[in-house]
Amino acid sequence: MLKIEAQNIGKKFKNEWVFRNLTYSFDKNSAIAITGPNGSGKSTLMQALAGMIPVNEGKVSFSTTEKNIHEEEFHQHLSFSAPYLELIEEFTLLEAVIFHKKFKDFKDGISAVDFLKQIELEKHRKKQIKFFSSGMRQRLKLGLVFYSTSEVLFFDEPTSNLDEKGFNWYKSEIAKVLNDRLILVSSNEPKEYEFCENHLNILNFK
User: Fold this and answer.
1) Nearest Cα to 132, choosing from 170, 83, 99?
2) What are phi and psi of 65, to 5 degrees?
3) How far is 202 from 206, CA to CA, in rounded Å?
4) Ranges of residues in the chain whose predicted pLDDT is under 70
5) Topology annotation, domain 3-205
6) Residue 106 CB: number of other CB atoms within 10 A?
7) How large is the greatest C-alpha to C-alpha distance in the chain, in angstroms?
């Protein structure tokens, strides 16, 4: 299994540090919550840990027991869900899922149609993404992470735009991947990360 090491990392925008002097080991088969108030930089930290944006200081590394993983290959080992990530609006739901599977397959050989059943959106398979509600979009984004073959799962504000039914679905899906993947959850809502055994408060690295 894979682990992430943050070694004295820091990120700043213009002249202001979002976080600094952050050292942390995100170990395999664990769930870690990244906490802090709105606007504190949780999303920035998540993106830095995923290799989506560069850090100004320090280093983020991915490794397994066998080898270190090159930064350009980080994306092959992780899946990322966030309300701000864009979907291809012109695709139908089924087209979006088939397109996703070209780059990252689903665990246990689940087909695109079976996946739509798992995320409870099967009846919308021919609907274009541009006609989806914010809750439907979020359920799709979460589902693509839950059912991917990735070793590391990133969830930034995971239940944003979800109703009570959607929240309960999220909790049930999380239970299926606990103790099997490395899970990072960025949130200021305790109910979203109550299953996390470790907490990293970003305010400690200002």
Assistant:
1) 83
2) -65, -20
3) 7
4) none
5) Rossmann fold (3.40.50)
6) 20
7) 49
Phi, psi of 76 (to 5 degrees): -70, -15
Going by the DSSP 8-state scheme, the letter that residue 66 receives in this structure is S
The pTM of this model reads: 0.94
Residue 178 sits at φ, ψ, to 5 deg, of -60, 145
Can you tell me the distance from the alpha carbon of 192 to that of 185, in angstroms, rounded to the nearest whole number? 8
d(CA 59, CA 69): 13
Burial profile 154-185: b = 16 or more Cβ within 10 angstroms, e = fewer: bbbbbbbebeeebeebbeebbeebeeebbbbb
At 128, phi and psi to the nearest 5?
A: -70, 145
Nearest to 132 by CA among 102, 91, 165: 91
**Dihedral sign, Cα of residue 45, residue 158, residue 92, residue 101:** positive
Burial class (CB in 10 A: 0-12, 13-18, 19+), 146: buried
Which position has the token pair 């830095």? 48
Sign of CA dihedral 35, 37, 38, 40: negative
Strand partners, 183: 31, 153
- The domain segmentation of the chain, as residue ranges, is 3-205
Directed axis angle between helix 134-146 and helix 93-101, to 10°?
20
Torsions phi, psi for 158 (to 5 deg): -60, -35
Rounded Cα distance between 174 and 166, Å, is 12
